[in-house]
Amino acid sequence: MPEKPVHVMEGHQQDAVGCCFIHNVGGWEGGKIMCTVSKDSTLRLWDADGGGCLGVHEEEGSGMWTSVRCWDGEIEKEGGGIGGGGIEEFHMGVPHLVATTFYGGIYIFTVFPEDNGKGRRGLGMKAVNLVRPIVENEYEMGVDTVPLPTAI
């Protein structure tokens, strides 16, 4: 373990509570990518080699994030239950981020390269599926992003 941090990644307004590395983003020719989630209700994508922020995402109504994991279809080709049909419903070989919220939401995001409007390439993400609590012990699944209630 190095004595000093390799990079200090600044941008979250509150504690970062989860992080993961993202693999095989199609069309991305940059270096390694890392995602962090925070109590500030944002997910951030980072250049893991240089430490710069590549993208920020705030999902309306999600609230505070609690964890994130990269789900790479090339690595994990088995599974089931999500959306009723297993991971084959998602694009195999395209990385997905699975992120959870304090309010019990489970979001699945795709990550893709995009122009940030300032002449620089960045990364974006879009929610492609969501499982959210409706009432205690009942859940609703949807393909589109559905805001979480402010109080459960």
From TrEMBL:
Q: Which Gene3D superfamilies match?
A: YVTN repeat-like/Quinoprotein amine dehydrogenase
SUPFAM superfamilies registered for this protein in UniProt: WD40 repeat-like
Q: What is this protein called?
A: Uncharacterized protein
**Source organism of this protein record:** Triparma retinervis
